[in-house]
Amino acid sequence: MQQPLAYRMRPRNLDEVVGQQQLVGEGKIIRRMVEARMLSSMILYGPPGTGKTSIASAIAGSTNYAFRMLNAATDTKKDLQIVAEEAKMSGTVILLLDEVHRLDKTKQDFLLPHLESGRIIMIGATTENPYITINPAIRSRTQIFEVKPLDEADIIKAVKSALADKERGLGDYPVKLDEEALKHLARATNGDLRSSLNGLELATKSTPKDAEGNIHLTLSIIEECVQRKALTHDKDGDAHYDVISAFQKSVRGSDVNAALHYLGRLVEAGDLPIICRRLMVMGYEDIGLANPAAAARTVQAVQAAEKLGFPEARIPLADAVVDLCLSPKSNSAYLALDAAITDIRLGNAGEVPDHLRDSHYKGAKDLQRGIGYQYPHSFENAWVDQQYLPDKIKDAHYYEPKATGKYEQALGQQYQRIEEWKKKK
């Protein structure tokens, strides 16, 4: 039985890894570990199809160590013992342990001494947050790296590579892939390269040759093979981004009917990750301090949608969109932060005042660190007149409260009271 395209195209070394340059690029942590031959056990976490197994395979290929794959949920302690025996004979084995968050105590206890000795280099793969789901004993013996969803350019590069590769890919097939079909293949799988390659292989092998002897893959064929509809059949392929833009602008403009329309388009396209990310952005970017509770409800709706999946996910998503649309709006907080960042980038920072510096170490008093600091809770209204900003920008003002929601109105009133106290002092 022939292995799937995604399996055959796994990278043989770090140079063949698609994306994840923050980990495997020149000068980055995993490449440094491989080049120095100072590998340590690690946990890679991120969405499916983003390269966790590929990175493990590439590390093994780049180091020429034996490479074994097990699943923490389904493989037994005996399977781990076999790997350990091989490591004793060969020196070092790289073990990709999938679903590492499912590792039970018995297997964990067996594995720990082998990780400590370095005989087994474990690369744990998980879609769960390891800081929450993985036992501290394992966590403390590994480095944790987040694997990001691949972007459109990464997937296009991988698809073109698979089409050209005659040894492992589809290079022997006379494929003609339309540009709009290629873009949809890259976008519809939401950064999941495995799904993109699976869709490409299905389309290639299930489409008959045309009169000219080519396997012509059109947008409609790719839509069928990845089970995602394109938002619209536009020539330049910009509709995907146009609909997302219109979606946010409709919410920001409080047009609930338009927002639901664009949400409907995204639902029909099956773009759940994009919808969820955009809703959370809007909750904090456009509604912000005018109604923080709406942003919190949006996060809850997104979590419910992700657990439910389509078609039921549309229900909490619709609730969140109506809630955000009809909520008061404020962007004051992030505009204030952007103003502060602009100052910093222009060199307007300066030294932290001595009375605010850390004083919890020997010799701090001799350096005048922390001396003169006044503890606000010891004063009326938990406020005392003292300088917090560096001398260089001590009179800077970044935050400009808006009066579009009761919550921020209250914040603005307190902000004004504090400014008046300063003037009196």
UniProtKB/TrEMBL annotation:
Signal peptide: none
Keyword Nucleotide-binding recorded: yes
Keywords linked to the UniProt accession: ATP-binding, Nucleotide-binding
KW Coiled coil (keyword) present: no
InterPro entries noted in UniProt: AAA+_ATPase (IPR003593), AAA_assoc_2 (IPR032423), AAA_ATPase_RarA/MGS1/WRNIP1 (IPR051314), ATPase_AAA_core (IPR003959), DNA_pol3_clamp-load_cplx_C (IPR008921), MgsA_C (IPR021886), P-loop_NTPase (IPR027417)
GO MF, one annotated term: ATP binding
CDD domains in the record: AAA, HLD_clamp_RarA
Limits of the AAA+ ATPase domain: 38-150
Any Pfam family matching the protein: AAA_assoc_2
GO BP field: DNA synthesis involved in DNA repair; DNA-templated DNA replication
Stated family: Belongs to the AAA ATPase family. RarA/MGS1/WRNIP1 subfamily.
PANTHER family linked to this entry: ATPASE WRNIP1, WERNER HELICASE-INTERACTING PROTEIN 1 FAMILY MEMBER
Protein name: Replication-associated recombination protein A
Organism encoding this protein: Enterococcus devriesei
Lineage, opening ranks: Bacteria, Bacillati, Bacillota, Bacilli, Lactobacillales
